[in-house]
Amino acid sequence: MKVLIVEDTKTITNLIQVYLMGWGLEFFEASNGVQGLARAREVKPDLIISDVQMPEMDGFALCAAVRADPILFATPFVMLTSLKDDASRQRGRLVGASAFLNKPVAVDDLREKVRSILKLPAGKY
């Protein structure tokens, strides 16, 4: 299965990959929403994990663009954010986010969310 990580901080991208490596997922990366949308159209991932606050195109705009794309519209989309307010979460739901996780992301929360979305076996990390 293919996972696209759209994150402007390389350390966080690497951490997400380490957290999820036990399932044999194939990872792709992009450092902003513009690159992320292009990469998503190229690799057609099974899951997109995206930061919210990024240069050029933020995670809200990226999620909206994915939902508007006839090929990508059903791709599960997990948003990672340091924004803790309800308005941000509501905006995420409005653009079609499948899940919202707070940064710094807890390993178990990320694993459980990805496992349930991709229907992966439990305990394989």
Features:
single chain, 125 residues, alpha/beta, five-stranded parallel sheet, globular
What can you see in these coordinates?
The protein has 125 residues and is of the alpha/beta class. It contains five helices and five strands; from the N terminus they run E-H-E-H-E-H-E-H-E-H. It has helices at 10-20, 33-43, 59-68, 86-95, 107-118, and strands at 2-6, 26-30, 47-51, 77-81, 99-102. The protein has a five-stranded parallel sheet with strand order 2-1-3-4-5, with helices on both faces. Helix 2 runs parallel beside helix 3. The longest helix is centred in the C-terminal third of the chain and has 12 residues, at 107-118. The two termini are 15 Å apart.
Mean pLDDT: 93
| Range of helix content | 40-55%
Radius of gyration: 13 Å
| Strand order across the largest sheet | 2-1-3-4-5
Low-confidence stretches: none
Shape estimate? globular
Order of helices and strands: EHEHEHEHEH
Q: Enumerate how many helices there are, as a single number.
A: 5
- Sheet/helix structural class: alpha/beta
Q: What's the N-to-C terminus distance?
A: 15 Å
The proportion of residues in beta strands is: 15-25%
Main sheet specs:
5 strands, parallel
Please tally the β strands and state the result. Answer: 5
Entry summary:
43% of the residues lie in helices and 19% in strands. It has 125 residues and is of the alpha/beta class.
Topology:
Layout: E1 2-6, H1 10-20, E2 26-30, H2 33-43, E3 47-51, H3 59-68, E4 77-81, H4 86-95, E5 99-102, H5 107-118
Parallel strand pairs: 1-2, 1-3, 3-4, 4-5
Helix pairs in contact: 2-3
